Amino acid sequence: MTAVKRQSGITLIELMIVVAIIGIIAAIALPSYNRYVENARAADAKSALMSLANAMERFHTQNMTYAGASVGSAAGAIFPDEAPLDGSAKFYDLVITSQSAIAFRIEAQPKNGQGGGTIALLSNGQRVNWD
Question: Where would you find the membrane-spanning parts of this chain (predicted)?
Answer without folding.
Answer: 12-33
